[in-house]
Every structure is written in structure tokens, then in C-alpha cells.
Design a protein that fits this description.
The complex is a heterotrimer of chains A (about 290), B (about 280) and C (about 230).
Chain A: E1 3-11, E2 17-26, E3 29-35, H1 41-48, E4 56-61, E5 64-65, H2 69-77, E6 79-82, H3 94-104, H4 110-123, H5 139-151, E7 157-161, H6 169-183, E8 187-191, H7 195-201, E9 204-209, E10 212-218, H8 219-224, E11 230-235, E12 244-251, E13 254-260, E14 270-271, H9 276-284
Parallel strand pairs in A: 3-8, 3-9, 6-7, 7-8
Antiparallel strand pairs in A: 1-2, 1-4, 4-5, 9-10, 11-13, 11-14, 12-13
Helix pairs in contact in A: 3-4, 4-5
Chain B: H1 3-21, H2 24-39, H3 43-47, H4 58-81, H5 87-90, H6 94-98, H7 104-138, H8 142-168, H9 175-190, H10 210-216, H11 246-274
Chain C: H1 2-11, H2 13-31, H3 38-62, H4 71-76, H5 81-110, H6 127-147, H7 150-166, H8 168-171, H9 175-179, H10 184-187, H11 194-216
Helix pairs in contact in C: 1-5, 2-3, 2-5, 3-5, 3-6, 3-7, 5-6, 6-7, 6-11
The chains are: A alpha/beta (about 290), B mainly alpha (about 280), C mainly alpha (about 230).
Chain lengths: ~290, ~280, ~230
Amino acid sequence: MRIEISGLTKTYRGGVAALDGLDLVVPTGMFGLLGANGAGKTTLMRILAGLVQPTSGRVTVGGHDLSTGAGRTAVQRGLGYLPQDLGVYPDLTARQFLDYLALLKGMDDRTARRRRIGELLEVVALTGDADRRLRGFSGGMRQRVGIAQALLADPQLLIVDEPTAGLDPEERIRFRTLLAQFAGRRTVLLSTHIVDDVAQTCREVAVLSRGRLIFRGTVEELTHRARGRVWSVVTDGPPPAEGTVVSALPHEGGMRYRVVAPASPAPQARPVEPALEDGYLALTAR
Amino acid sequence: MTGQTASTLGASLRYEFRMQFRKRSVWIVPALTVALFLLIGGSLLRDLFDPGERPAEARSAVVGLAVQVHALLSIGYGCLLADRLIRDDGLRVAPILDATPARPGARLAGKYLGAGAATAVPILAVYFGLAAAYAVHTGAPHALGWALATCAVVIVPGLLFVAAFALTVPLIMPAPLFRVIFVGYWLWGNVVAPDMMPTLARTLIHPLGGYPLDALLDFHGIDGDDTLAGPVPGATLNVLRPDPTPATAWLSIAVLLVLAAAALAGGHAVRARRA
Amino acid sequence: MTLWWYEARRAGWAALLGPPIAVTLGVSAAFANPQPGDTTTARILLGALEMAVPLAAGVGCASLVGRDPAVELQLAAPTPYRVTLLRRMAVTLAWAAMVAGLTAAVLIATGWWARWPANHGPFAGQLTWAAPTVGLGAVGFAAGAVFRSPAAAGALVTTLWTIQQFFAEPAQQHLPGRLLYLFATTRGAVPGDWTGNRLALLGTAATLVALTLVLLARSERLIGEEEE
């Protein structure tokens, strides 16, 4: 499902512009969406999921125009959505919760529904806890239920907003792999703060800042933005004043700083190979 | 009270007041209530400004006004407060608050007084606004003195009583169910005639303030022929209806405040057990 | 059927417990009368149906909007959320109707129904509880959609109910007030207006629900905007 966005603007009450004339095309496959808090990622996700109406602009998903009721419903029939702040019904068991949402997604065939729920519970490793009430679930377990509900109707478009928040490292890796395998001919839009999740799963990425698109290209191209700008500085003094410190590690009586800066931040600094996170910082620090 | 407890109480009171004061519904609900009241004829609200209809005495006018305002606006008051304590769990701030060194009892008291006071502001604004308009309209400034006295011995104890139960009872039942039961109670415990069925109306446990109205404010209805407190021939629960005197009036106020404190203590215990 | 079962659970405990508790309290009040008189007792019994059941249903319907923890998932589903909310309202009212209908059947069978002179018979007389239940339910549903706060919507429903209780006479002084008076069977001022009153309540309810569904189409209002 190809997503085409042109001139998309969303202004909330009080004049807060969450999106400001956004133009973006999202092709089939995994696509990463990066941006700081308040960049407009969640608003974009909500518009694509049909929850929020844009103030102006045009969005089509798989050729369906989201500004019409019929278009929204058509998109929602093939949509899997995992919101950033996932709410569940604590009095239902995981199996009942998935069953209820499957019914709302129009999966009326009881046998097929039960089979699909069983499969997904297996995929998210919750088969043993399927008949426990969600009230007693940990944050990570709830997130896995959220992932399962997003995949229920075998969606053509999967929108996931901060999906790995609350997952332990093993779960995170498993979920990333699951998403990448799932993508295939479908579209998976992954919005996250965790740059590494994008680095490990997406070929293409967009970066939003203050409601505007400031980058769209491949992961390699974004990484390349930091070439010649990433430095390793070993010092027993204060961190370099210039640039953005990416990491700080103890090192033989001092500290080793990884810094993204347009020019050498200290006399003893030596250039190092950039990673995607450096590219992102080089882009947004401008 | 230690310095820490006082500081917790003060901070909780101040911020609970602010949060509740900013809620639009705290203002919209009383405004709609007054609008509905005026729409159906407004009885005393209308009569207060009609020289042919209003009570002869300023005291009867403003005390009668207090009875109507209190009886009517306290319903919304109780319903609006019914989610304030359970809200902390819903908003997931309870664990953060519980992890602070602040004493839970002081936090509860601050929430009770702060949220209760903020929700009472529109009610008091309506009452004193109308009382002031009446005082100006009739050239009777002493009406405001009676309004203050009525507020102190009738409205404030009644609202303190309602607020304590509205905050704590939803800990043991769903808030909507509390609202239904509270309204039923309000009608049954304040208005129903004691000779019709067993009721707390006209007893010492009467949040509309029958005893203070009768014995402290010498109010016997707008027309002066109502009995608001004391024994009723043939009624049950007359043991709770001593003759109205200033002493029993103060006792009635004390009973309301003790019951409010007991409700808060119960709520505090329920929360402590669940923690 | 399964979907309706889930919606019944979402309507909440208050919607389930409210009507039977309200009827129980009303019936207890009727038989706790220390000076028994058939007409008075019958009036309180019918009053339990005409007053207590609508109050419970109204507050139940007022609590449907604004407290759904999974509202984002609901809004992203192809089933319109307003249809889901309408189902929850239907479940709430149907349960109240079942409790009221059973109680009415017992009152008819035991003769208490007929002892209230203005009972309007066993069939049309069911509008005694049906019209105010649907009317106050619609007010609650609409107020919930406008405020997105069960506390505010519940406060409005209970206040409206109380005003009509406390000021029954002024509320029925003029025809529009009489037509919208909730308790026309047990506290009606003009018996001839009863049928018109019941139909007016049902018509107003239908209009309110229709307007509420239009309002609920704006899904954006429902996301994270509950007034806390």
C-alpha cells in the first residue's frame, strides 16, 4: 500500500501546528520515521490511521482518499495500528481482548478468528498467559498484546508508534525481526525514538522536525550525513564544548567521548566511522 | 502536626484546588443548573426580586435562597467530586505520589479540602451573587450578614459532609453507581417526609442543615410555617430528632463533621490496605 | 452475539448494578411506609419504575463516553466508534428495560399496578418507565459526548432529575415543561397530557441521540481529551 502525502498541515486548537505542509511518499516495505518529541510523528500516524482529520492537504493510502468517510473505512479495513500509548481493557483476558478487536475489525467467522488469535498469541509468546486478565500483565506483555492486535486482520498497512517501548532487549530484537518478516509486499510505517530499531529493519527513512520533512532517503544516505563529522575524543578534562556528545565511556583514567561536530572539537580528536544515530544527530543539530 | 505534614497538606490543597478550579465542568454544571432552574420558573430566585412575592424579611429571603441553592447545587457538587480520588489511579500518578515521603493522610486531607473548596467556588459565587443582588435591590445590606452566617453554619458543613463521601465511597463502588445512590440518598435523606417512610430528614444527620436553620437562624420556611428539624409524630427514627435548640444545632453540625472525618478515615484505610 | 456481550462488559458495573439497586431501594421505600395506604404505596412502587430506573439508566449512559482506555484502537477499527457507543447505550437501556419490565410484571400480577389510579393500563402503561428511561438515557449520552467526562455528564443528568423532583409544580406550569416532565405518571399535573408527554420524551430522545451521533463523528475530540 503506497502512501502519498501532499501539503499536509495539521493545526490544533490554540494554533499549535503539528504538521506544516508535509510532502512525503511512503513505498511498500519497511519505512522508518524519526524525529524528536513534538516533531509531528504521532499526529501523522493518527491521520494515516483515520483518527485525526488534517487541517489541509491530501493523503491517499493505496489510492483511497483519507478525506472521505468511504476512503477512511477502506483504509481501516486493511490497517493494523499500534498507538504510542496503548490502552487495554484490564477486565478482559488477552484472548478475549484480541477476540473483541477482531470482531470490530470485521472478522466474523468464529473458527477463523480463533485460529488467527491462537497463531498470534504464539507469535508474541503469550500462549501460556492468554487466559489471564490483562490487569495483571507487565508493560512488556501488554505491548506484545498490542502487537498481536495490530496484526489480527493480516493488514496491508501496519502503523506502529514506538512499538518497542517497554520491551526487554530480547523481545525488542524478536519484534524487529517479526516486523521485517511481516513487511514483504505490505507497508510497515515504524515511528520511533530508537534509531537502532530503524537501522536494523528499514531501508528507507524520513526525519521530521517541527512538522516538516527535513530528510527522506535511505538509511545509508542518512548515515552519510555524518561522514567527516564524528569524532572520538579521549580526555581527563571536561567534555568538548563544541558539538553533540553521543556517548561517554570511562577510558584509562579519563573519558572517551564520541562527538558529532562539523569540525574537530579538540586538538586530540580523531575522526571515526559514522553510524545512523550520528547521521540523525548531524541532521537535526543543524 | 509536623512541618512535613503541614507542608504536604498545603501543597496538596493548593494544587488540588488549582486542578479542580480549572475544570470546565466545575463551572458548566452549576451554570446549567441555575439556567435550568430559571427556565422552569425559578420559584424563589424569581420571587426575590418581585416586591409583591418576596419574603418580608431579608433573613428569610437569603436563608431560603441558601436552602434552594444548597439542595440543588450540592447534587452536581457530589457528582463532580466522585472521581477525584480514584482519578490518581486512572492517570497512573498514584505510584509516583505514593513513592514520595509525604504522608498519605495529609495528601488525602489536602485533596479533600482543595478539590472540595474549588468545586464549592461556583456554588458560593451563585449564592453570594444572588444575595448581593438582593441586598442592593432591596437596600438591605444586612442581608449579606445573614448570607455569611447561613453559609458558615449550613452550606459549609453540608458541603464538607458531601465531599467526604463523594471522594471516598467510589473507592468501594463504581463512581457512576455512587452518583445514582447519592442522588437517591439526597432526596431520601433531605426531602422525604418522615411520616411517609423512615428517613434521615429532620434528624441530626441532615446535610441540608435543618437544626441550624431552625435553631440558629430561626428559619421555618419561606412562608414561616415549615418544620425543618425535631420529632415528627408517628415517624420512625425520632430518637435522632431531639427538640431543636442552639445546643442540638451545634451538635448536628458536629455530627456531620465527625461523619465526614469517619468517611475520610475509612477511605484512607481502604487505600492503605490496597497499597 | 459475542460482540454484544463484549459491549455489555464495556458498559460497566454501574450500568449492570444501577437498575436493580435502584428498583430495590424504591420498593424498600414503598414497603417501609409506616402509615400504609394502598394508593401511596402503589405510587411509590410505580415511582421506583418511573424515577429510580431512569436515573440509573441516565447516569449509566452518561458514563459511556470519555473513559475508554482503548479509544485509539477503537477509532482505528473499521467499525465506527459511534456505532460501538450506540451498542453500549442500547445494552444499558435494554438491561434497565428488562429490570423495569420484570418489576412491572410483578406489580401487575400482585395488583399493586392497578392501585395507582393514573396507571394507564398494563400495556401503554409501560411507557411509565420506558419514556423517562430512554429520555434521561439520551440526555446522559448526549451530555457525555459534549463533556467527554462521566463526572460532568452524570452531574447534569442527576441535576436535571433532581430539579424535576424538587420543583415538580413550576416545572409543569407551562405546556412545554409538562411535555418534557419525566414523572408524569406519578407526579403529573395534567393527566390528559400523559400520552403527549410520553411521546414527546421519546421523540426528544431520538433527536438527541441523532445529534449525538453527528457530534461523535468527529473522532479527534475523543482522543486524549477527556477533561480530567
